């Protein structure tokens, strides 16, 4: 469903990603685990066309999106929740969500988004910058979902978030996957979070996938060895 092959990219002369291959099924949740600086953010930015790829293919339901501008990739069903959430702090919660809506929605937020995140409805008139870290993460996810994606990419969603809220985010992501038939790729350093949600685990080191385990075979000790410094 979401097929990445031979993907390479970098910054200027320095190549960061080396021939990445990944096929994600519809409704599958894949976790890309790796320490700081191993290439997780570069991977997502390349998938979104924010960092230029030097080679490779990225297909959504058979449609080649590599080479498209970021907004065209969004139109073709790829949504991105960046590291650090990047919500607009001076805009209200409602306005933040509206930035993700297609023009055809006329600014109207779909009911099911507020059902998924009731707190965003309560706080829709508040400035995004006044929300807690966990609420901002929900807002960033809601804004991404407003584009009605087929594939959701999340870059370290648990960063800076309290453990109790992390559990809520895990529950919500699983719910969204089922409700919307979403395919999810999430990057993380926190294994307890991905153990709750992922069907498959990949470890990235220096821009290469060095380990792949299905949920059934995933061995926490082995994966955590890659994550400890
Ligand atoms: N704008 C940039 N220009 C040059 N090199 C960069 C740039 N951004 C990242 N890099 C380099 O690319 C490599 C991968 O970084 P990246 O941010 O993708 O890693 P990461 O796994 O997401 O780490 P983190 O968890 O710290 O975000 C690192 O060596 C980093 O120094």
TrEMBL record:
InterPro entries with a match to the protein in the record: AAA+_ATPase, ABC_transporter-like_ATP-bd, ABC_transptr_urea_ATP-bd_UrtE, BCAA_Transport_ATP-bd_LivF, EAL_dom, P-loop_NTPase
Keywords: Amino-acid transport, ATP-binding, Nucleotide-binding, Transport
Keyword hit for Nucleus: no
Residue span(s) of domain EAL: 1-104
Domain spans labelled ABC transporter: 2-229
Pfam families in the cross-refs: ABC_tran
GO molecular function, one term: ATP binding
Signal sequence interval, chain numbering: none
SUPFAM superfamilies linked to this entry: P-loop containing nucleoside triphosphate hydrolases
PANTHER family for the chain: HIGH-AFFINITY BRANCHED-CHAIN AMINO ACID TRANSPORT ATP-BINDING PROTEIN (PTHR43820:SF5), HIGH-AFFINITY BRANCHED-CHAIN AMINO ACID TRANSPORT ATP-BINDING PROTEIN LIVF (PTHR43820)
Family that this chain belongs to: Belongs to the ABC transporter superfamily.
Protein name per its UniProtKB record: Urea ABC transporter ATP-binding subunit UrtE
Organism (species): Stutzerimonas tarimensis
């Amino acid at each position: 469903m979401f097929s990445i092959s031979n993907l390479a990219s970098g910054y200027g002369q320095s190549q960061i990603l080396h021939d990445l291959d990944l096929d994600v099924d519809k409704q599958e949740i894949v976790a890309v685990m790796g320490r700081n600086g191993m290439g997780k953010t570069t991977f997502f930015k390349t998938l979104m066309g924010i960092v230029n790829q030097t080679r490779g293919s990225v297909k959504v339901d058979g449609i080649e999106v590599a080479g498209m501008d970021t907004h065209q990739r969004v139109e073709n069903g790829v949504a991105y929740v960046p590291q650090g959430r990047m919500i607009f702090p001076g805009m209200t919660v409602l306005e933040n969500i509206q930035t993700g809506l297609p023009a055809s929605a006329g600014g109207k937020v779909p009911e099911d988004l507020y059902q998924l995140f009731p707190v965003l409805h309560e706080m829709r008139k508040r400035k995004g910058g006044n929300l807690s870290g966990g609420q901002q993460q929900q807002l960033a996810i809601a804004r991404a979902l407003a584009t009605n994606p087929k594939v959701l990419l999340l870059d370290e969603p648990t960063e800076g978030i309290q453990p109790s809220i992390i559990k809520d985010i895990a529950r919500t992501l699983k719910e969204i996957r089922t409700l919307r038939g979403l395919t999810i790729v999430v990057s993380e350093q926190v294994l307890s979070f991905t153990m709750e949600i992922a069907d498959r685990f990949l470890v990235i080191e220096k821009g290469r996938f060095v380990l792949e385990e299905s949920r059934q075979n995933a061995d926490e000790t082995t994966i955590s060895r890659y994550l400890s410094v």
